[in-house]
Amino acid sequence: MPINAAAALQKQKVSLVGQNKTAVVVGGTLGIGAATARLLAKLGCRRIIIIGRNETRGRTMLQRMKELAPKESDLVVEFVKADLSDSKGMQDAARVIQETVGDAGIDYLIMTQNGTPAGRNIKENADGHDTAFAVQAISRFALAYLLTTHGGLAPNAIVMSIANQGQTLDSLDIDDLSLKAQLKAGLGAPALFMNQSKRDSMVLDSVFEELNVRYPQHRYYSIWPGLVKTEEFDLGLVPGYIKIMMWLGLKLFGTTPDQYANFPVYLLLAPDAQDKLGSGKYFDRVLNPTQLGKWSKVPKNREALWEKLKEIVGVRET
Ligand SMILES: NC(=O)c1ccc[n+]([C@@H]2O[C@H](COP(=O)([O-])OP(=O)(O)OC[C@H]3O[C@@H](n4cnc5c(N)ncnc54)[C@H](OP(=O)(O)O)[C@@H]3O)[C@@H](O)[C@H]2O)c1
């Protein structure tokens, strides 16, 4: 029976007032991230830090969160401008986030930055990788890894990625994460788009499973949002027949960002979440437990990818 997250949060009178919690929402200027940040503000989170590139939207979000917060939460809001398109941007962002948060550490690190698969329109970043892939997947590894290993997280912190989950691209060559060989071979836009989407999901599954194995003192969740009609949702970016599938999907089970935000927030905050959902870390759009994709279940695949991502981001083991 799927969880009715909004009703459960209300029924259990979930509130963060007086708990002195700090949330960092990466990609919090828009869409699912912004809606999640608004709900955390409404529920009394003490401190919320929004990460994104767009300063105007960032400032608007700070104002909106202040309006929504209960007076007694005494909410402190901050915006950190960061571009997660390449390894330098990721390293700078991790450093500035940690400096901004200070010694208390992050209680909830929620990552919703969007790198929509580019199909055949791949743009290379400064490291020579597909920029969309860098934002969607590499930056989630970089921020989670750097903030975990450099003491940026509070004890019992929860790290959450909201993105595709559970797909697999078994043919992936970890020396060609940007799928340049497929682009060069002339693969059509819809097929390349699907493979990029599977690759993103598979890389994130592998990263989150490794995080859970390596750092059991924290919880690392990866959840799929389904189809959410965000402010800038643009079917025009989607090639071929996939556009029709997504249009239909939106009609049948699409949600708004504010409706959807109840699910990640339920998982983060509801006292009965772990009893109801078990110890799994991967969930679908209504918090049914999901499996890792086939490739990600193999430890040696994940370990090889982990080393490759460290090399790409330019981090050393600490
Ligand atoms: N919406 C859906 O139906 C859906 C379905 C499946 C999966 N997802 C996944 O769910 C996540 C959230 O999606 P969404 O629809 O909420 O996305 P969205 O509305 O496009 O918002 C994306 C956020 O990412 C930030 N961002 C984009 N590029 C960035 C960069 N280079 N550096 C830093 N921040 C960047 C944007 O902020 P700035 O513009 O301020 O930088 C914005 O706050 C994404 O990973 C998406 O792929 C969404």
Automatic annotation (TrEMBL):
Keywords: Oxidoreductase. One of its GO terms (molecular function) is oxidoreductase activity. Gene3D superfamilies: NAD(P)-binding Rossmann-like Domain. InterPro entries: NAD(P)-bd_dom_sf, SDR_fam, Sec_Metab_Biosynth_Oxidored. The keyword Oxidoreductase applies. PANTHER family: ALCOHOL DEHYDROGENASE-LIKE C-TERMINAL DOMAIN-CONTAINING PROTEIN (PTHR47534:SF3), YALI0E05731P (PTHR47534). This is NAD(P)-binding protein. It comes from Mycena venus.
